Amino acid sequence: MSAPSGVHRRLVRAAVAAALVAALGVPATGAAEPGPRAGAAAAAAPRASAPRDSAPAAAIPRASAPAAPTPAAAVPRTVVLDGKRLWRTKVRLKAGDRKLERALRDLTAQADAWLGQGPWTVTDKDQVPPGGDKHDYFSQAPYWWPTLPRTADNPYGCPYVQKDGRRNPDVDKLTDHPERAKVFESAYELSLAWYYTGKRAYAEHAAEILRTWFVTPATRMNPSLQHAQFIPCKYDGRAIGIIDFSQGFTSVVDAAAILDSGAPGWSSADRTGMREWNERFLDWLVDSDFGKEESAALNNHGTFADMQVAALAAAVGRRDLARSVVTRARAKRVDAQIAADGSQPGELARTRSWHYSTFNLVAFTRLAAVGDRVGVDLWHHTGPNGAGLFKAVDFLLPSATGEQPWPHPELDFHAYAADDIVHAAADKGDDEARAAVAGLQPPPGGDLWLLRPGAEQLDNILG
Question: Nearest 5°: phi and psi at 27?
Fold first, then answer.
């Protein structure tokens, strides 16, 4: 059969776009929102669950396009990612949109690499946490180091001292920490790859990974973080250890929501078990002493703590809690942490000021995305000093694009750490960010923003 003509392809794409507009009342382009900096995001996505997607495993059809999927059957109920935008992107892929091909190749390459790894469980570690239960997550503080040689009487080399920004490699000897990162990343990338390609193996492996870590009684983690970031001979766990989860757990929440849209291998029992785990974890974050202490932090720890609580609350149906957290963040986070020039003084004081400035804005942009789902606009809030999220992103642009060196302390500078937050601001109508997008340095593994438009920590230092 002869290849389809350019005219035929355009007709197919126009037909799919028309179906999309009729179904959702939104444009099919997936382009940045109209702005300058105008308007809040769309309302939350429809909530009905789905029949299984049947798209081809890897091909992007060109000769003909399938009918646009029913919105209720295809829009995931994600809380950071915009489910409607994912659905629009899926329609574009099915229509043969070449602009998405490279991102899809990069995403599926990462997903393919996970197929031979995992699942992981907290119960397979050699060490027993201080509470005596291997189902408890157990990690060590990354920036604390021994001061004495290890001996039989002093196996840890205590006492420990802090060296900010300098990561102790002993952290990875407690396997919960690195394996937690693998669970978060793999489930996210595999679920997205399934959603866009329909390849069954991606969904089934993502389901196995989440089921093993969070659902199966014999292997699941207890929904608390009492022993995160312990310091040998000093603390059995710390509130600050909550960031082990808050920095990436929303990827798991969104991965589960994507699988909920009809993925093979993800059962109703899995959905129920994951939801119950999230509900119990949210209760612990809100009610425990550690959770309250972390939420009171005045830097990136507090921002991530609020973002995690808001996202979980939105995911389990506690919209009032989610709205309250995002609303309070206007004064509690934006006004308190962002200076008039857009800098973040609390993060500039660190030895890794670039990393932590971008890191905190990852939390802010995810929190703003949760706000979009529950009807609270954080992006367009301006504090008494005139600062807001747009100004904080703009503060980073000269160094993100390489126009100027970063003038503050940084042990290991990576310009691409800012890529996702620049994309996020551009999508919300920030003209300076839009102009900067073309000058961004792609992160390792490629720029996936078109397929997973949610901010990630791209310069992960595993701390």
Answer: -70, 155
Q: How far apart are the first and last CA of the chain?
A: 54
Long-range contacts of 345-351 (CB under 8 A, 24+ apart): 346/298, 346/299, 346/300, 347/299, 347/300, 348/408, 350/164, 350/165, 350/409, 351/164, 351/165, 351/166, 351/409, 351/410, 351/411
Q: Which tokens in the block code for residue 207?
A: 């389901």
Report the amino acid identity of residue 190: L
For residue 2, count CB atoms less than 10 angstroms from its CB and return exposed for 0-12, middle for 13-18, buried for 19 or more.
exposed
DSSP H helices, 25-82, are 71-74
d(CA 94, CA 62): 8
DSSP-assigned letter for residue 66: P
Q: For residue 422, with 0-12 CB atoms within 10 Å meaning exposed, 13-18 middle and 19 or more buried, which class applies?
A: buried
Task: Look up residue 260 and give its two tokens.
Answer: 């909920």
Do 186 and 114 touch, CB atoms closer than 8 A? yes
Nearest by Cα to 304 from 268, 333, 340: 333
Q: Which amino acid is at 409?
A: P
Amino acid, res. 47: R
Residue 114, amino acid? W
Burial, 51: exposed, middle or buried (Cβ in 10 Å; 0-12, 13-18, 19+)? exposed
Element (H, E) at 97: none
| Strand pairing class (144-146; 160-162) | antiparallel
Alpha-carbon gap, residue 93 to 434, rounded angstroms: 24
- Inter-residue contact 78 to 257 (CB < 8 Å): yes
272-330: pLDDT as tens digits: 999 999 999 999 999 999 999 999 999 999 999 999 999 999 999 999 999 999 999 99
- Please give the Cα distance from 204 to 153 (Å, whole number): 47
Tell me the one-letter amino acid at 155: P
| Cα–Cα distance, 88 to 20 (Å, whole number) | 7
pLDDT in tens, 65-104: 333 444 444 799 999 999 999 999 999 999 999 999 999 9
Please give the Cα distance from 447 to 436 (Å, whole number).
15
| Dist. CA 64–CA 69, nearest whole Å | 15
CB distance 252 to 210 below 8 Å: yes
pLDDT for position 461: 53
